[in-house]
Amino acid sequence: MLLPLLITTIHVSKLSLVNFLAFDC
Question: For residue 25, is pLDDT > 70?
Fold first, then answer.
């Protein structure tokens, strides 16, 4: 039950990390 939430959290954090790197360049 907790696994989809974990996957969503990882996906969102990865997405925000990519956005951060994109804006940083």
Answer: no
